[in-house]
Amino acid sequence: MRVTNHMLSAKVLQNLTKSLQEFQRINNQMSSGNAVSKPSDDPVATGRILSLKSSLTAQERYYGNMNDAESFLTTTDDALDNFSESLLRVRTLMLEGGSGSVSSSDRKAIASEIDQVIDQMVEIGNSMCGSQYIFGGHSTLDKPFTRQGDEITYKGDSGEISYEIGRGVLLAVNIDGSQLCQEIVPDAEQGNTELFNTLIEIKNSLENNTNIEDLTGEKLSQLDELSDNVLSLRAVVGAKENRIEMSKARNEGDRLEITKVLSHMEDIDIAQAAMEYSEKAYVYQAALATASQMLTISLVDYIAR
């Protein structure tokens, strides 16, 4: 096979280009700190890196959701605690008013204080977390409880507010008003929830000095049942807070592990890259020197002799 100067020059330039490309690759890695700058560098590693980044983004989103859910649950727990304290105050006042030694005027004063406690409980029922009413179900933009005289109306629904705290894992974080105050009493004169209906009846008994014996009997039992319901709801909220705390710890561990794997795949080994850089630079410089000598040789040089 006849080898011409053109063929020789083309082969030399091809090898120089290949050597330069390798030198440029390691130079890019050194300057960027990344082992893979573009998919063609390592298609398999690129696919794995993209998958890991997607997983990391999802874990960060779940963590943010858990923070939001935790805030919602904390606000709910505080509201339930205030609700329990209010019911305990009503119980104390009711027992005081049910005593046979209390006058009718004193009972009216006690009824007036219970009326203020009811107002306070309506306000607690309208507690907010950020811009959301926490006891309104899906109706988070409007006050769930309103009061006009002795009529206290729940305007929310029984919808669940859920947060995705893991892949395909939804956690409902809200307590709706019907759970908090028990179901709507269908035959109640005021159309109140069972809890508020009971409180209004207690207030009216003291105010009108009627059915006083019920205050230490039937009404007391009803109030205790309603208080137990609020305590049960607090237990549910507490269990969910614990679940979120454990899920956050697991999420942090997962994110740390993914970050480690990503760093191992993405980041270059500085010491190894520096050695490879020196090697590629030497090879390229040697190739340039060799090429400069070969490309200047031609048949004319020998004819001239």
Describe the model.
This protein has 305 residues and is mostly helical. The protein folds into 2 domains: 5-33 and 269-303; 55-260, f41 fragment of flagellin, N-terminal domain, CATH 1.20.1330. It has 8 helices and 6 strands, in the order αααββββββααααα. It has helices spanning 5-32, 43-97, 104-125, 177-180, 194-208, 218-266, 270-294, 299-303, and strands at 128-129, 132-133, 145-148, 151-154, 162-166, 169-172. The strands form 3 sheets. A two-stranded antiparallel sheet has the order 1-2. The chain has a two-stranded antiparallel sheet with strand order 3-4. The protein has a two-stranded antiparallel sheet with strand order 5-6. Helix 2 (43-97) runs antiparallel to helix 6 (218-266) and helix 3 runs antiparallel to helix 5 (194-208).
